């Protein structure tokens, strides 16, 4: 396991360097950068052969090809996949922190970490393998909103997505791409004697652009939402926006007003309620009424 962790960290370091502003990274510069970064993590010894092996692993794990330009005598990412991870630096930082906290280190004596990680699921390794090798999967699935009814599913797995400390499988059931909570999957079986053609035209960025949370429900319209908070809550919403579409309309000592554009899902409403101390829904009216009813029912329960 130690070698595997070391290799993963080294690959993330390589990606972090190659994702920089420069088109090409000279050979010796990349070797020095990787060697120095790994030395800070307690490892030593980075050879040309090690890098070449890592390049192959990066292509296998991340789907990113690294090339070498003879004229520039430097490495570069051949094709920028717009759906590939964009925040290698942050990923590396979080990985290092969690790895350090769980290892034999004094870091835990001054860092109080909340392990904000997805809840474990035994089926994840099987799902990853099925996605990688394009095998359909069969499982029994619990429908929580239908009184824990259990249905058998056969789907074509395409992605795993993490949201709110849970893993979700994005898979085609028939012609429809659906989300399945990994924690509600049981009796999973990979159909290793079958394969399917994976849909590579899915724009993952667009898929979740208009949603909050795990799923972009196409039957719910995209709407403009205007919200008002006090200045204190406004400070938090400026540092951590509610949604990528957030626009600040008013920002003064009396109020903080924003507009977002998205689908008003249950996940979004729950997020609004989490900062309800000063929240006022300005529009649309149906969202204002929905939030009012939640407050009204909560008040009755807690009288």
UniProtKB/TrEMBL annotation:
PROSITE patterns: WYL (PS52050). It holds the Pfam family WYL. Transmembrane segments: none annotated. Residues 225-298 form the WCX domain. Residues 124-190 form the WYL domain. This is Uncharacterized protein. It comes from Phocaeicola salanitronis (strain DSM 18170 / JCM 13657 / CCUG 60908 / BL78) (Bacteroides salanitronis). The lineage of its organism: Bacteria, Pseudomonadati, Bacteroidota, Bacteroidia, Bacteroidales.
